[in-house]
Design goal:
The chain is an alpha/beta fold. The protein has a single domain (3-93), classed as DsrEFH-like (Hypothetical Protein Ychn, Chain: A), CATH 3.40.1260. It has helices spanning 13-20, 36-39, 41-48, 57-62, 77-86, and strands at residues 3-7, 26-29, 52-56, 73-75, 89-93. Strands 4-3-2-1-5 form a five-stranded parallel beta sheet. It is globular. The protein starts with a strand and ends with a strand.
């Protein structure tokens, strides 16, 4: 059962995420969580070795973090909807 984990900001819940996520799950960075591409790049790259990581392109552009790493696939809102349909559950992390 694949879960889409949606992160919207940096928080201490990142440790809980690592303990919760499994191989078939995916991670979506939205809003201020995209700042992780600047401040937690090693953490993101480590996660990207095991899991699919996505970012909302419009949110990344608004925060000037689009070209920081190739390990994150940037998607638009239409692809976001498709991503939610491809997963059995959605878990938001605040």
């Amino acid at each position: 059962m694949a879960i889409l984990h949606i992160l919207n900001k940096l928080s201490k819940s990142n440790d809980s995420l690592v303990k919760t996520i499994v191989q078939e799950d995916s991670i979506l960075l939205i809003e201020d969580a995209l700042f992780m591409l600047q401040s937690h790049i090693e953490f993101i790259n480590q996660l990207a070795k095991k899991y699919k990581i996505y970012g909302i392109k419009q949110d990344a552009e608004a925060r000037a973090v689009v070209n920081i790493t190739a390990d994150v696939k940037f998607i638009d809102y239409h692809e976001f909807v498709t991503l939610t349909e491809e997963h059995d559950k959605i878990l938001s992390w605040y």
